[in-house]
Write a structure and sequence with these properties.
By secondary structure, the protein is mainly beta. It has four helices and 18 strands.
């Protein structure tokens, strides 16, 4: 019988199974990830995050071998470059289990490059999301989705992982979407895409800072519709900010089904702020039918 120690956590209800594996004793397999994320036969999650030193996995090549690495897997067993909500939960896990003080920030590795997580207090964290890229001035794709007709124009945004952002006219359109089926993006991205749908809600000035406000839903490649997406919130803020033109805010409050996150745009980079919660620890029995990598047996 094989058992695995795990932690369950979430960032604005984007939930993860977390594995603290500093020495790289566990080599992940897609079968194991799919089992852990299964909401009926497993633990249930949008993805799996393994906390491991960079020197213990091929994806960590190029980082200091002693650096922490966020080994992120989607629920379908595929890997992803980066997860903003997951990065906050990853930080909370390292604070607790690696006994780190993140008040001055910690730089760690991801498949999308180096990122920095900083503890803000009261269970909130800020994640430096790295550089972004927007190649079009307006729209460069079209998206079809169940519950939305006709197809709508979209803007592609690269945050280390791919996104397509669609602006909707009102909240009724947002609520009518059926995201159980993946939206279709044309032209089709070669590695798939996260697709966000957004409605602008105006803005306010708070503490002398102008802030925009939007509401979004998202279908994440490899996971389906999730309650929140950190890189998706950044993509939405960047897209709406670009559509709004000169003088638009650099700070955006983004409402997601699982809560609220804040995106700050600073030059060619974004910072994502929001909560992270560790909710449970335990041991899970891995069925014999689930294939493990040789070093994990």
């Amino acid at each position: 019988m094989t058992t695995l120690r795990f932690t369950k956590g979430h960032g604005t209800e984007n939930d993860f199974v977390l594995l603290f594996d500093e020495r790289g004793d566990l080599d992940m397999t897609p079968e194991l990830v799919r089992f852990l994320c299964d909401r009926r036969a497993g633990l249930g999650a949008d993805g799996v995050i393994r906390a491991v030193r960079a020197g213990h996995l091929p994806a960590g090549t190029g980082f200091d071998p002693a650096a922490w690495f966020m080994d992120y897997w989607n629920a379908d067993g595929s890997t992803s470059e980066m997860c903003g909500n997951g990065a906050r939960v990853f930080g909370a896990l390292l604070e607790r289990d690696a006994h780190l003080d993140l008040r001055d920030g910690l730089t760690f590795g991801t498949r999308g490059g180096a990122r920095t997580v900083t503890a803000l207090g009261d269970g909130r964290y800020a994640v430096g999301m790295g550089e972004y890229r927007i190649d079009a001035d307006d729209f460069d794709a079209e998206v079809e989705a169940v519950g939305l007709a006709p197809a709508r124009p979209a803007l592609s945004v690269d945050l280390g992982n791919p996104h397509h952002v669609v602006a909707l006219a009102h909240l009724g359109e947002l609520e009518a979407l059926d995201l159980a089926r993946a939206p279709v993006v044309n032209p089709q991205p070669p590695t798939g895409s996260n697709v966000e749908f957004v409605v602008t809600l105006g803005g306010e000035v708070r503490d002398g800072v102008e802030r925009g406000r939007v509401r979004m839903r998202v279908h994440e490649r490899g996971s389906g519709e999730t309650r929140s997406c950190g890189t998706g919130a950044c993509a939405v803020a960047l897209a709406v900010r670009q559509w709004a033109g000169d003088g638009s805010p650099d700070v955006w409050d983004v409402e997601v089904p699982g809560g609220l996150v804040t995106v700050r745009v600073a030059g060619g980079r974004t910072i994502l702020e929001g909560p992270a919660v560790l909710i449970a620890d335990g041991d899970v029995v891995i069925p014999a039918s689930v294939r493990l990598a040789a070093s994990a047996r």
